[in-house]
Amino acid sequence: MRSVPPTGDAFAEALVRVRACAVRPEFRLDEAPAPSRLAPSAMALTVEPADPDADHASGRFVLLHDPDGVDEWDGTFRAVVFVRAALEQDLVGDPLLHEVGWSWLIESLAATGAECTQAGGTITCSSGRSFGSMSDRPTDGFVEIRASWTPITTDGSPVEFVMDRHVGAWIELLAHAGGLMPMPNGITQVIAPRRRKRG
């Protein structure tokens, strides 16, 4: 396991829930080195398309935990996500794309029942256009979503018990950004800690 050692049972339980989260088969998730200076405990996941030739989104999910709480978080946990995806042709240059990107996040949190507070983020859109001998190439573009939020519960249950919903929201956001169709019920995978083969 490649994560910063937990400081208590709450983080250990959160890890169990994170690893039990259902994952779309279009994506391949791996545990990755976690940042060690942002909180006493942390874990990270990265995602890439399961098909190397696919154009789906890629990204990163980081879960931070400080049992003493952080004023800026307004809680003891913080989810930090990054998503990058190629844009479909009809979205390149869309003046509302920044708002659309943020709505993807809000919809993803709602769809998975991931309650949160102190949500914030940045939507970055870029596009490239070819000229001269390369002018026949289509205009391409990318959207990058950086966001973070504090997981909460409003029914009195421990927040670490619903951490899979927050990973699920990130997966849903990746699907939105990657232009994937909604997943039929019952077709899922489960995150399994592993090392990515290199070479």
Structure description:
This protein has 199 residues and is an alpha+beta fold. The chain has one domain. Helix content is 21%, strand content 35%. The chain contains 3 helices and 8 strands, in the order H-E-E-E-E-E-H-E-E-H-E. Strand 4 (58-70) and strand 5 form a beta hairpin. Helix 1 packs across helix 3 (163-177) and helix 2 (97-112) packs antiparallel against helix 3.
Keywords:
21% helix, six-stranded antiparallel sheet, single chain, disordered N terminus, two-stranded antiparallel ribbon, alpha+beta, 199 residues
How is the topology of this model organized?
Layout: H1 9-19, E1 22-23, E2 27-32, E3 41-49, E4 58-70, E5 75-86, H2 97-112, E6 116-128, E7 140-151, H3 163-177, E8 189-190
Antiparallel strand pairs: 1-8, 2-3, 3-4, 4-5, 5-7, 6-7
Helix pairs in contact: 1-3, 2-3
